[in-house]
Amino acid sequence: MKTLKFTIEINAPKEKVWTVLWADATYRKWATAFCEGTYAVSNWEEGSTIQFLTPEGEGMHSLIDEKVENEYIAFKHLNMIKDSKIVPVDAATEEWAGAMETYRLKESNGKTTLEATTDTVEEYADYLNAAFLKALHTIKKLSEE
What does the sequence similarity comment in the record state about its family (predicted)? Predict the structure, then answer.
């Protein structure tokens, strides 16, 4: 497994960027870079589960591993979701189960640097590189409005 890292500078305070990242309406806008109609179901508390879902009920079942409001959040991906049901880890998913995805915000002089990382297997690296770049540009646009 390899870790991909993405960074973008945003002309907005970190609190605004955080809200764009995790408020339902804006999350849906930038997460469409991964799949049209993507949304998240969670109480957004550290230690809680979160489901990243498509309108068809496909997606990821994850854990909010760590959270520092307006600064950092880490998701640990546990299982796939198919037909709105959590699928047990099997030989096909064992390679990436436990993969981490993180978002870190650092503010300086009214500008925020957003750093996102994601663990991936080689077969998804090109897709994730393209999707994350698109997502970060959408986050920047929404945060600077």
Answer: Belongs to the AHA1 family.
